[in-house]
């Protein structure tokens, strides 16, 4: 019997609430919004609320603070990163992960019907990764060794230090003792 693969979509993981700032606003406004909402970026929109760029905390630090610019005189348009990396809400999560990795970005803007509807970040992916791995393992889609936690410490049989202790019937054993375990039974 073939078990269907897990089909997690961007919409299942994305953040719906996105903080936006107008392109002509000064960067102090962007920084204030980031602090107020506890986010690492703001989406820059034009006068028609169309997303045209992004300002991340890194952009702010390298393009404003490091250069000693006056936050009240520099506009968001001047420091934003563009073009925006976008994805559709129904795209598989794996596509989003691959797109972030290939593009070297930590965020994708989620667009649906030509409108900004959310954002997906590396943190959003990391929040669901353990559950996805666990479900995949239970369905035989991931090797068990990737799910099991490896412990370090002293083997409960031989007393030697090991960087690869594994639990066997409630006892933590080194690789050598695990190999000999069948003789203990």
List keywords for this structure.
2 domains, CBS-domain, three-stranded mixed β-sheet, 24% strand, alpha/beta
Structure overview:
The chain has 2 domains: 10-128, Roll (CBS-domain), CATH 3.10.580.10; 151-184, no CATH class. Residues 141-150 have low confidence and may be disordered. 38% of the residues lie in helices and 24% in strands. The chain is of the alpha/beta class and 185 residues long. The longest helix is centred in the last third of the chain and has 17 residues, at 122-138.
Beta strands, count: 9
**Name of the CATH class of the largest domain:** Alpha Beta
Mean pLDDT: 83
Q: Which structural class do you get from the secondary structure elements?
A: alpha/beta
Q: What string, H for helix and E for strand, traces the elements in order?
A: HEHEEHHEHEEHHEEEH
Main β-sheet, in a few words? Answer: 3 strands, mixed
* CATH level-4 homologous superfamily of the largest domain: CBS-domain
Number of domains: 2
Radius of gyration: 24 Å
Low-pLDDT windows of residues: 141-150
Task: Compile the SSE list and pairings.
Blueprint: H1 10-13, E1 20-22, H2 27-37, E2 41-45, E3 51-56, H3 57-65, H4 76-79, E4 86-87, H5 93-103, E5 107-112, E6 115-121, H6 122-138, H7 144-147, E7 151-154, E8 161-168, E9 171-173, H8 175-184
Parallel strand pairs: 1-2, 4-5
Antiparallel strand pairs: 2-3, 5-6, 7-8, 8-9
Quick take:
By secondary structure, the chain is of the alpha/beta class.
